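I'll show a sample.
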Amino acid sequence: MTTTPEPTATAATTTTAATLPGYTPGTWVIDPVHTEIAFAVRHLGVANVRGRFDQFTGEIVLAENPLESSVSATIQVASVSTAHEQRDNHIRSEEFLHAAEFPEMTFRSTGIRAGEGDGFLADGELTVHGVTRPVTLELELIGFGKGYQDRPVAGFTATTQISRKAFGVTGGATGAMLGDAIKITLDVEAALA
């Protein structure tokens, strides 16, 4: 699991809605067409295998005080894609994510903190394979703009690293060929509801 360093005093500590151009409190819905939920795991200690999940929903609730905001997301496990059908089916199987029994992964934030520079840390609970563990996302606000028909949009990038074994994802004999650490990267675009 990722250990979370204590944040230092930064610009994010004093960030308010007024200091972020385009910041609009409200509920922002994650746009699946312009969002990617990606992961990478080491294979045989020498290369990374990368993949993504194609079906998910989520929302970001921006508060007047950014540090009082929240994030939630639900991912459909069966939508995993590594560009290799046999491998994807194996990941969905009982040896890995067991999509038939645990069809969804979820993340619910429990708090937002100032991070380094202008960044933020989103503490929360991640549920994978029926196991819930605390996880911290390193969150970067890319910015705000106007989308289709001038609808307000926002962009975020979030990263974290988890231990697959901590979530009970061992992978059987195949798991011995894979690293324990899973790097997760989320490139998110959301629109104001």
In short: The radius of gyration is 17 Å. Confidence is low (pLDDT under 50) at residues 1-13. The chain has one domain: 24-192. The chain has two helices and eleven strands.
